[in-house]
Design goal:
CATH architecture of the largest domain: Sandwich
CATH topology of the largest domain: Immunoglobulin-like
Number of domains: 2
Helix content: under 10%
Oligomer: single chain
CATH superfamily of the largest domain: Immunoglobulins
Radius of gyration: 20 Å
Shape: elongated
Distance between the termini: 64 Å
CATH class of the largest domain: Mainly Beta
Structural class: mainly beta
Number of helices: 1
Order of helices and strands: HEEEEEEEEEEEEEEEEEEEEEEE
Strand content: 25-35%
Number of strands: 23
Largest sheet: 6 strands, mixed
Length: about 260
């Protein structure tokens, strides 16, 4: 009974516990795989990660720099000792951006601290490129028309239409976005010659990719402006491939 008494006393006295997570629960935010990449969004799942829920707001930028601590949360994520920009915190989830200046490393050490309490330092796999498309649900990619309207089963795309896809993990751009800064303007992928969009496993013609690079006024977010071929089949599976690395299969584009 004694351990339960200590637990009860700690609870009543407001004692907090250190963040709880493991290497297996630090994942790529778009793919859900435990494989990270520079300038890619990542998520940490666990317990006691924060006291409250808080998402980044435009007022959190300090002199145009992304915050490494969201005000009022006390949550920090260190990646090889470098404070990572944070997008969202809650008691069970943290979303952060892997700093883009961590290159040529096979792994990185991740540590979460909550005020004065630190969780375990865990080693996570790091690769140069880890393409991942953001999704509406486990089967549907996020895509928009040029006016920003979401493409969905209720409002599908059509062959020959211009659409915009959103991804992370596509690597450096020209010019690259400095640590903690937003992309100020369009910046094409450094590996643009090796970038492909696959529909049902087949690459679309290169001239159909009107743009692939940083999404202006964002960080860690990439956009692909795609002119769909006229012979695109209904609801094709869609993937990205760059320099030999591919996004996971299973996502489809609503198209009639």
């Amino acid at each position: 009974m004694l351990p339960w008494i200590f637990f009860w006393l700690a609870f009543c006295c407001g004692e907090r516990f250190a963040p709880q997570y493991s290497a297996a629960t630090v994942v790529h935010a778009a793919t859900g795989l435990p494989i990270l990449a520079p300038n890619a969004f990542a998520s940490i799942y666990g317990k006691e990660l924060a006291y409250t829920k808080r998402a980044i707001a435009s007022t959190d930028l300090d002199g145009g720099l992304l915050p490494t601590v969201l005000p009022g949360t006390g949550v920090r994520v260190l990646v090889d000792g470098l404070a990572a920009p944070i997008w969202y915190v809650s008691p069970t989830q943290i979303n952060f951006l892997v700093p883009g200046n961590l290159q040529n490393k096979p792994s990185v050490r991740i540590l979460v601290s909550l005020d004065a309490r630190a969780g375990p330092e865990v080693e996570c796999r790091l690769v140069p490129l880890a393409p991942g498309l953001f999704a509406l649900d486990p089967e549907t990619v996020i895509a928009t028309r040029l006016d920003g309207a979401i493409i969905s089963d209720a409002s599908p795309a059509a062959p020959g239409m211009d659409i915009v896809l959103y991804a992370t993990g596509l690597g450096p751009t020209i010019p690259d976005t400095p640590y903690r800064q937003l992309a100020r303007a369009a910046a094409p992928l450094l590996h643009r010659p090796d970038f492909q969009v696959l529909l049902n496993g087949s690459p679309v013609p290169n001239d159909r990719i009107r743009y692939a690079g940083a999404a202006p006024q964002f960080a860690g977010l990439y956009q692909i402006n795609l002119w769909l071929p006229e012979n695109t089949p209904a609801n094709p599976e869609i993937q990205l491939r760059i320099n030999g690395a591919s996004s996971p299969p299973g996502l489809h584009l609503p198209l009639r």
